[in-house]
Amino acid sequence: MATKEEKVLEEYISRNNLKITRQRRCVLKAFLDCENHVSAEELYNTVTETESNIGLATVYRTLALLIRSGLASEMDFGDGQKRYEHRYKHKHHDHMICTECGKIIEFTNPIIEKLQDEIAAQNGFTITSHKLDLFGNCSDCK
Amino acid sequence: MATKEEKVLEEYISRNNLKITRQRRCVLKAFLDCENHVSAEELYNTVTETESNIGLATVYRTLALLIRSGLASEMDFGDGQKRYEHRYKHKHHDHMICTECGKIIEFTNPIIEKLQDEIAAQNGFTITSHKLDLFGNCSDCK
DNA sequence: GTTGCTGCAAAGTGTTTGCACCCTG
DNA sequence: CAGGGTGCAAACACTTTGCAGCAAC
């Protein structure tokens, strides 16, 4: 059975004269199974659990494809590696990152978003995206 | 004449049994002269304009020292390199980053900060720092 | 069969580290 | 004159790329 995400990917692929491959299916599947905010390395480890001979380069290339097709977006929490987020099922949200245990709590606040728009407008600035990260300690790591 | 920042650094250095060197003075001076949000490479280029034989490693090591002494803080705007901000003279602020020309507009909004604290409290989260970046286009790059 | 895709290894990029010598305190 | 600091080059961690063979359409 094809998930909604598989269809999105397939459509993007056929629209751009690309090809659907076993590896791309695998990476997409693993990406969807993974918790949100995976790193390439983590995703690679997950993928190779079931398909041992997929290269790390393919994971990176497929992640780039997922980004282009709108299924994933790239995040950087400043820990030295990029992390990837599900974009199709999760809508936009901000993050609280526990610097002790790495836990990530997602949240959104419409008032903050509105204030951002106002501030931008006051400065003649047009927002295309934003990110709000709170760093600190979660309730388990006090 | 010693700037306030030089005094802060010297105090940190003597408090920790470290040493003041020509190179550290140079890097600090260049850092203060630079626009805010320099990268290590940019700072290195500025420094070597006047002191040609300073190593890039020294710039990195001195930046780490400036961070420890509270004069600088590390930023990451997702462009693949860390950037460094004046901390002693500038107080905390958020950023609007023009993805076209790279211009950075700084701002703060007390209501947003207050909302952040409330949201964190609701989740049992203790904030130690936060960052809010708005990406888009400035008025010159519409 | 053409053209894109893959795995591998090599190259790249930004940053850190090991080491012998140098300089500050 | 002891111990930290420096420049250099090598090492690092993460990511990207070149290439020859392979597979999808």
Radius of gyration of chain A: 17 Å
Q: What's the overall geometry of chain A?
A: globular
Helix count of chain A equals: 5
Query: How many runs of DSSP E, i.e. beta strands of chain A?
Result: 6
Top-tier CATH class of the largest domain in chain A: Mainly Alpha
Helix and strand composition category of chain A? alpha+beta
CATH homology superfamily of the largest domain in chain A = Winged helix-like DNA-binding domain superfamily/Winged helix DNA-binding domain
Overall residue-averaged pLDDT value of chain A: 92
> How does CATH name the architecture of the largest domain in chain A?
Orthogonal Bundle
What oligomeric state is this?
Answer: homodimer
The secondary-structure element order of chain A is HHEHHEEEEHE
Query: In the residues of chain A, how many domains can be counted?
Result: 2
Sheet with the most strands of chain A? Answer: 3 strands, antiparallel
The low-confidence runs of chain A, each spanning 5 or more residues with pLDDT under 50, are: none
The pair of chains with the biggest contact is: A-B, 33 and 33 residues
CATH fold title of the largest domain in chain A: Arc Repressor Mutant, subunit A
Q: Going across the biggest sheet of chain A, name each strand in turn.
A: 1-3-2
Residue share in helix of chain A: 40-55%
Proportion of beta-strand residues of chain A: 15-25%
Note the gap between the termini of chain A. 44 Å
Please sum up the structure shown.
The first copy, chain A, is of the alpha+beta class.
Topology at a glance:
Two copies of one chain form a homodimer.
Chain A: H1 4-15, H2 22-33, E1 38-39, H3 40-50, H4 56-68, E2 72-76, E3 82-86, E4 94-98, E5 104-107, H5 110-122, E6 126-137
Helix pairs in contact in A: 2-3, 2-4, 3-4
Chain A binds a DNA duplex (25 and 25 nucleotides) through helix 2 and helix 4.
